[in-house]
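In practice, a research group might receive sequence data for several interacting partners and want a quick structural hypothesis before committing to experiments. The following worked case mirrors that situation: the sequences arrive first, and a predicted assembly follows.
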Amino acid sequence: KAGVTQTPRYLIKTRGQQVTLSCSPISGHRSVSWYQQTPGQGLQFLFEYFSETQRNKGNFPGRFSGRQFSNSRSEMNVSTLELGDSALYLCASSLIPSEETQYFGPGTRLLVL
Amino acid sequence: SQQGEEDPQALSIQEGENATMNCSYKTSINNLQWYRQNSGRGLVHLILIRSNEREKHSGRLRVTLDTSKKSSSLLITASRAADTASYFCATFDTGNQFYFGTGTSLTVIP
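A structural hypothesis for the assembly, expressed as tokens:
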């Protein structure tokens, strides 16, 4: 079974731009979560989607948004990028929401200049 | 803020030695999981222990959970150079929130 895939793997943007990251979960997994990882703040939960509905949301500003499609693929969008948004963005999928083992993708490394 | 704090932040040992890292958390949990991350890549799930379990084994890994102290430990026995990575505990609390700890950076010297 193919693992979680994330595209693109690397991205460079400038302040004020917006960015869309994509995540394809493991086949059959319906829950997708997003995390931001930075050296200063560590791994922080962004949001979780299940059956195209956002179930949980972390403490991030409204510039961070996401969605899930009927095939369970998910996208997250960051608008009006700030320097502090530079991070590794990780997507994880699981069979059911949150409680069970999460399988992580390789991440998208975003650099905001 | 993060739920979990891990100790030590960094650990360096010789190959063949055992490595122990600890995780403390703040709220009631449904389960606690340990993950490994190699150098800025994705996380790999190692083991899950539920709140009603006290100890769990998986290969060279042994995890304990003390819910009264809100703490867990991960023991890696007979360490190998390939175990060099960052290790994170993650808790799924009763409020359906998933939190990661601050991580322990393990270096195993061949």
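Before designing any experiment, note the following. The first strand of chain A starts at residue 5 and ends at 7. The interface with chain B takes residues 4, 33, 35, 42-45, 48, 55-56, 88, 90, 92, 97-107, 109 of chain A (CB under 8 Å).
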